[in-house]
Structure prediction request, 908 residues.
Amino acid sequence: METYLYEQFLEVLGKEKISKSESELYRHSRDESSHPYVEPDFVYFPEGVEDIVKVLKIANEHKIPVTPYGAGSGLEGQAIPIHKGISMNFDNMKKIIEFYPEDLMITVEPGITRLQLNEFINKHGLYFPIDPGADASIGGMIANNASGTTAVRYGSMRDQILDLEVVLANGTVIHTGSKAKKSSSGYNLNGIMAGSEGTLGVITKATLKLHGIPEKVLAARCTFNTPGECAEAAQAVLSCGIQVLRMELVDAESIKQVNSYGGYAFPEEHSLFFEFAGTPNIVEEEASVVEELMKEFGCSNWERANTPKDRADLWKARHELAYSYKHIKGKASTGADACVPISKLAEMVVFGRTLLEESGLIGGVFGHVGDGNFHTMVMYDPNDPVEKAKAKYTDDQIAMKAIELGGSCTGEHGVGVGKMKYQLKEHGEAVELMKSIKLLFDPNGILNPGKIFI
Amino acid sequence: METYLYEQFLEVLGKEKISKSESELYRHSRDESSHPYVEPDFVYFPEGVEDIVKVLKIANEHKIPVTPYGAGSGLEGQAIPIHKGISMNFDNMKKIIEFYPEDLMITVEPGITRLQLNEFINKHGLYFPIDPGADASIGGMIANNASGTTAVRYGSMRDQILDLEVVLANGTVIHTGSKAKKSSSGYNLNGIMAGSEGTLGVITKATLKLHGIPEKVLAARCTFNTPGECAEAAQAVLSCGIQVLRMELVDAESIKQVNSYGGYAFPEEHSLFFEFAGTPNIVEEEASVVEELMKEFGCSNWERANTPKDRADLWKARHELAYSYKHIKGKASTGADACVPISKLAEMVVFGRTLLEESGLIGGVFGHVGDGNFHTMVMYDPNDPVEKAKAKYTDDQIAMKAIELGGSCTGEHGVGVGKMKYQLKEHGEAVELMKSIKLLFDPNGILNPGKIFI
Ligand SMILES: Cc1cc2nc3c(=O)[nH]c(=O)nc-3n(C[C@H](O)[C@H](O)[C@H](O)COP(=O)(O)OP(=O)(O)OC[C@H]3O[C@@H](n4cnc5c(N)ncnc54)[C@H](O)[C@@H]3O)c2cc1C
Ligand SMILES: Cc1cc2nc3c(=O)[nH]c(=O)nc-3n(C[C@H](O)[C@H](O)[C@H](O)COP(=O)(O)OP(=O)(O)OC[C@H]3O[C@@H](n4cnc5c(N)ncnc54)[C@H](O)[C@@H]3O)c2cc1C
Prediction:
């Protein structure tokens, strides 16, 4: 960035809100993916919507890239400022703007993380159930249309949004919805902002749906002989109409990994993890119906997590899965995030597991099978081009196969730089329309340039 | 339309698929609203996507308006071809393209109605729950983002869409989604097509989510002293987390109306109607919890519909509500469709009821209170300008107040020509962006011109 421009930013934005420190540039050069790091010219810490209007107006005039940065937990390089410019960090925008407990609704700033949000609302008997594992920011979760283990019951981030305050590239501030639970007015802008990865506007406030904390929660798990059998059993649960809160597949390899990482003693077989939530009677009924069904499908090791500690352990282990691989010394990780129609899930999971075997790399298959969404995690030596190529090959094959089966290359992680190459295959002619929407919202291409579309 | 153009259409589209008969022009000049009728130049009955590509290419070249027409049950004049041109009717596009029972999913053509769809899938133990009362077409329901009594559990049409095949104004065919249950790929086009009322593209196929028919369904009702008490009680049900299938408010006036229209004997007081669905145990548990809660809130006349006939009667009566007013001789009807945060519902309902009293017109308040969505129905003599003005005044006041309370002028009926005047108040600066989206999709303004935005 040219000096005169940087000085203009300094003057207008105030130097307390700008950082060029080595550690901040480093932190904002990356996310949790292994996509190449790029440092921004500087990091900006806005304190409210007016600050964001200011920065975008100058950036738009001079065509300076602006890349929003949430908690940096993205897995596809979404927050990496690959064309440099400004990284915009929301650490100073974490306020709860308004809380409406009777409406099961809250308005927050984008920098608040899901755990911070829950810490506040749990005291009032409410919770925000979307759980992408990492303690991501609400802004980042909306921008990625994140979801996770509870999507089978509550849907993705897109389904939680009532209204967003958004600053457009030219500095215009709009609201994308209202506080009504449903509406047929105007065009649906909530939906298009969710998953737009900072390329269409900067989210400065979000009004979200909340849910009552269920009176009772019960976890259980069981094992099957093959990942394919797990997927078939999961399909049966969905068809019978039981509203599980979570239903996760973890393959034997991953159970081994997490047992050794976290000191657990789960049976090292292909497993389904369940969670049920509701009144005690409903939970009991649901757990019994599913237990019976799983046994019909030939499961072993059906076990309820009877104590709160058992339940906490089970989901702690599930959440540690990614880290249990990632901590392996000297290895980088990559992974697929395919989502397919449920009837194709068994085929896909077997396909993924076979690719992993063939690659000879350490890796596992796990995921949110209730949505037909599953991940692979593949470990490779980043200095070994052959291992790296093999790892990328498995990702590639899985994404392509998912699309061929009518599914999506990314169920929840988003496109970023990693999934750009599949957009045309997945969306066909619609890609041109999407690109023209980008151009309409951001004619100078300043908002997180170089993402989603090639 | 100039003769040479009409002849070009005749030649390219085939005269068997075109009608200019008086009865067809008449039928396509109106919907169920009382907005002024306008006849199209001709009605076109396409038989597949290629036909639609053909007609749009010529229409786009010559800037001829094309207005899709579903079942004509819209309440805001959405399907009225106010700038004449072509009315496009989907009576010959009602096919089930592909049925995926294991995936709880189906792909259909837009002309199929919800009852026709259900007739097919019910045999397989599945159902499509969105129920706007009228036997609307799937295309029309998507285009209006319709919902109805079951939205409290299943959401609106937007929430049912996995993928749409859409023909854009220039004849390009796109798919807006995939068969994956969730996705973070590309921009969300499903959402923006839902509720676009035929102004952004013509829907030629829809892949929708289905649901298992609940093992047991149980209906119940109770009464309160005021509509406000009904609304407060409804709010309590939502907060306690019970997933009712339906929860409807019907005020005393409307109960009187429907009793006399349909020969029912419901207590003529302000009422809540409930429906619970699930396994027998879950249904029993939910009904008991709600019964207890309603009694805490001081309800009277709690009564379960114990036989299937009782249950059918209860919902038949609810569905006949609109007609029980509409059949009144010599009167036209109009009505509001406000949606507000639940905590504002009691205030809004009382406001609506008071306006009706003050107007001196026959009318009622009823609606889908689980979503904060409610309707008024006001009867007026269309030849009496004072009555007409009073009726429109109540609609107006309710829409404006809903927006002021943070809600929406239309929860489900859509904008059409009737709610255009509230768009700026509801969406503010976002209206400009919405208009530019319209221009991007349809630069020549041929798709259902004159709707949504002034
Ligand atoms: C161990 C682990 C497990 C994970 N499991 C899951 C999972 O199960 N499900 C899942 O969905 N994800 C998962 N993720 C991925 C990640 O947590 C999500 O993608 C999350 O949404 C990222 O949020 P963030 O705040 O970290 O955003 P960042 O990574 O900082 O940014 C993500 C994107 O959001 C944009 N953005 C951020 N804030 C704003 C704003 N205010 N306005 C506009 N754009 C903005 C950025 O520009 C960027 O494009 C996992 C990650 C890890 C490390
Ligand atoms: C008694 C009664 C009760 C009602 N109750 C409810 C209710 O509870 N909830 C509710 O939501 N609605 C309700 N409605 C309104 C109505 O049923 C809905 O708005 C429904 O969605 C209209 O569908 P339709 O097929 O009749 O569409 P039409 O009225 O024919 O058209 C509606 C719009 O859809 C567009 N359209 C139709 N097909 C296509 C296509 N293939 N591609 C693109 N655009 C298309 C048209 O251009 C038009 O803009 C009720 C109506 C009546 C008469």
